[in-house]
Structure formats: structure tokens, C-alpha cells
Design a protein that fits this description.
Blueprint lengths: L1 E6 L5 E6 L11 H17 L5 H14 L3 H7 L6 H10 L3 E5 L9 H10 L2 H18 L11 H28 L3 E5 L1 H7 L28 H9 L4 H44 L1
Parallel strand pairs: 1-3, 3-4
Antiparallel strand pairs: 1-2
Helix pairs in contact: 3-7, 3-10, 5-7, 6-7, 9-10
């Protein structure tokens, strides 16, 4: 497999794992088979022109779009079994990391990966447990005829999604702890990011009061361009989702800052008025 670091803004980076040399003859696990079945069913429902399946897909796609892009990125990293760990350690099989050196200096790659591997582990573990707790509570909805138990299936999906992201983060952490990562600057990414030369990205999301304001590096149209250049079609939707979420977050942060400034100004004006009245 190969890891790819794709800066979305000056403080946020998407990680994506490209699976290499995957053959169709490999034996799939039960979970993989069920996941493939669910994906096929969902695709068939998307083709419906009307009906409750079409409505479920429409609302479902909106919900999926709101799942954090960081979670989708970690889910792209496959879980690692004890056997695979032994094989990697014995053979010292290293995983290549591609990144744009114009935005991520090679010396910073390890810190960026460490942050991505560890910052969301407790969140995924906690929310996975909440999803498991919610399953039996939503189970009685199944007695309603005709309508499927959507709350239950959604909680099942969220539990699996959090488990998969947690497994991906632990796999990444294992690679870092055992120094099984090898950095490989990408000339293709350097060229793709050249128009967005905004200096090195930060490995941490600094507070809104920081000296340098966070800026977008990618926009909606860039997803297709990058996915085509790298030959990874599925990256288009991943980048599109990440750009949409980060743009939305930055807009909300700006509105909050503007609101605080207006409140501060109003408070200062009120104090000045009071002082003037006392005089």
C-alpha cells in the first residue's frame, strides 16, 4: 500500500491509502463480503427513479457527506492483523508516503502522520461504543411493517465506520512506532500544488487568534484534476468531501470571529457612553 498526504488548507491535511497489488483472487473476510453487498445494494437503490429506496439514498448521501473527511481517510487504511504485523516486522516491509514538498517539508512528514494517527483515536472508540449501546434501543423499530429499521442499520454502519477508522489509525501508529514509513516526495503533487504556494502547512490546528489566518489550498474543481493526475479515480469524491467540509468550517469560524468583534465593539461603545454620562 501507499499513503498520500494531500493538504486541503494551510492547517488541515487529508490522508489517503492507495491499495497496491490487490488481486481479486484473495480470500475476502465475512466483513468485506458484507460491505461489498451493502455497497452493491446502495448502488442499485441509487438507480431507482422513485420510491422509499430512492428517498433513503438521497438522505443517506447527505448524511455520508457530513461524516468527517478525517474518518474517511483513516478508513482507507486497512486493518492490520497480528500475522501481518509479524510479517512486516520480520521482512521490514516499508510503506511509502507521497506528499508535496512545496507544502510539507520532508522533516515534518512524521509529525503530520503522528497527529493524523493519534488525534481521533479516543473519539472513534467512544462513538463506536455509543453506537453499540444504541443498537438494542433502536431494535424495536423493526416491528413496524414494510419500513426497514433505518435507525438500527445506521447505528450498525456508524459502529463499523468508527471501528474501521480506529483500526486504520492503529495501523498507521504501528508503522510509525516501528519505523516502517519511507518518505517519497512527489513531483506530480509539487506541480499540482504549485499554484497554491502558501508556505509550509501546519501540523496542528492553531487557534483563531493565531498570527497567520488559515487559508484554503484546494477548491471543489481540484479533486478531479488531482485524482486524474495520480490515476486514482476514487480520490475525486474524497477531496470533494474534504474541501466542502473545510470550507464550511472556515466560513463558520469567520462568522463567529466577526460576531465576537461586533459584540466587543458594542461593549466598548457602551462603556464609553457610560463614562460620558458620568462626566
Amino acid at each position: 500500500m501507499r499513503l498520500i498526504l494531500l493538504p486541503v488548507s494551510t492547517r488541515r491535511t487529508l490522508i489517503y491509502c492507495q491499495r497496491l497489488n490487490v488481486t481479486t483472487t484473495e480470500q475476502q473476510s465475512f466483513l468485506d463480503r458484507r460491505t461489498a453487498w451493502a455497497a452493491k445494494t446502495w448502488a442499485n437503490w441509487e438507480k431507482k427513479e422513485s420510491g422509499w429506496q430512492k428517498k433513503v439514498v438521497e438522505y443517506g448521501n447527505q448524511a455520508l457527506k457530513r461524516i468527517p473527511y478525517e474518518e474517511w481517510g483513516l478508513k482507507s487504511i486497512p486493518p492490520i492483523s497480528a500475522r501481518r504485523k509479524e510479517e512486516k516486522l520480520s521482512g521490514k516491509e516499508k510503506v511509502e508516503v507521497s506528499f508535496p514538498t512545496t507544502l510539507i517539508p520532508e522533516a515534518e512528514v512524521s509529525s503530520v502522520l503522528t497527529k493524523l494517527a493519534t488525534e481521533r483515536q479516543s473519539l472513534h472508540k467512544r462513538r463506536m461504543i455509543y453506537s453499540f449501546i444504541g443498537m438494542p434501543i433502536s431494535a424495536p423499530v423493526a416491528i413496524i411493517p414494510v419500513i426497514p429499521n433505518l435507525p438500527f442499520f445506521y447505528l450498525v454502519f456508524r459502529a463499523w465506520s468508527h471501528w474501521r477508522a480506529l483500526s486504520g489509525s492503529k495501523h498507521l501508529e504501528f508503522l510509525l512506532e516501528n519505523r516502517l514509513i519511507t518518505t517519497k516526495p512527489s513531483k506530480i503533487l509539487d506541480e499540482l500544488y504549485r499554484p497554491f504556494d502558501a508556505g509550509p502547512v501546519s501540523s496542528t490546528e492553531e487557534s483563531s487568534g493565531s498570527a497567520q489566518e488559515e487559508k484554503m489550498l484546494l477548491h471543489k474543481s481540484d479533486g478531479k484534476r488531482i485524482s486524474e493526475a495520480l490515476g486514482i479515480p476514487e480520490l475525486d469524491i474524497e477531496l470533494d468531501r474534504a474541501v466542502w467540509q473545510v470550507e464550511k468550517a472556515l466560513k463558520a469560524e469567520k462568522e463567529l470571529r466577526d460576531e465576537k468583534q461586533e459584540l466587543g465593539k458594542a461593549s466598548a461603545d457602551a462603556k464609553k457612553q457610560k463614562l460620558g454620562e458620568k462626566k
